[in-house]
Amino acid sequence: MFAYIWPVLLVIAANVLYNLCARETPREVNALASLLLTYLIAALVTFLLYCATAGPRHLPDDLRAVNWTTFALGIAILGIETGYIFMYRAGWAINSASLTANISLALVLFIVGLLFYHEQITLDKAIGMGFCLAGLYFLNR
Asked: What is the pTM of this model?
C-alpha cells in the first residue's frame, strides 16, 4: 500500500512547496533567470541522487537509452513553471491558480485518455468530470 501512496504524497508536498515558491518569486527578478538557477540546482541534486542510487548502471549507458520524451518533458516542465510564475504575477490567488490549472488539466487528460489511450468512461468518472466543470465555474465566477 505504501508503494502506491508515497508517490502521491510526494507530488502533493512538492506541489505545495512549488506553488509557494512560484508565488513568492520576486517580481523584480526575471522569471527565466530565476528558472535557470532553479534548473541548475535541480540538475545538481538530480545528479547527486543518481550517483547515490544508480548502483551498477552507468550514466552514459542510461543517457543513451533516453528518447524524445526526455526532451519534450524538459520543454513541458519549463512551460508549467513559467506559466505558474506568470499566473501569480498576473494576480491569480494561490488558493485558486493551481486548482484551476489542475482541474482544467484533468478535463483535458480525460479526453486524451479516451481518444488516444482508449480508457473507459465510467458513470463515476463522468460524474466526477461534471463536478470538475462545476468547480471551475464556481472558482472563477
From this structure: 0.87
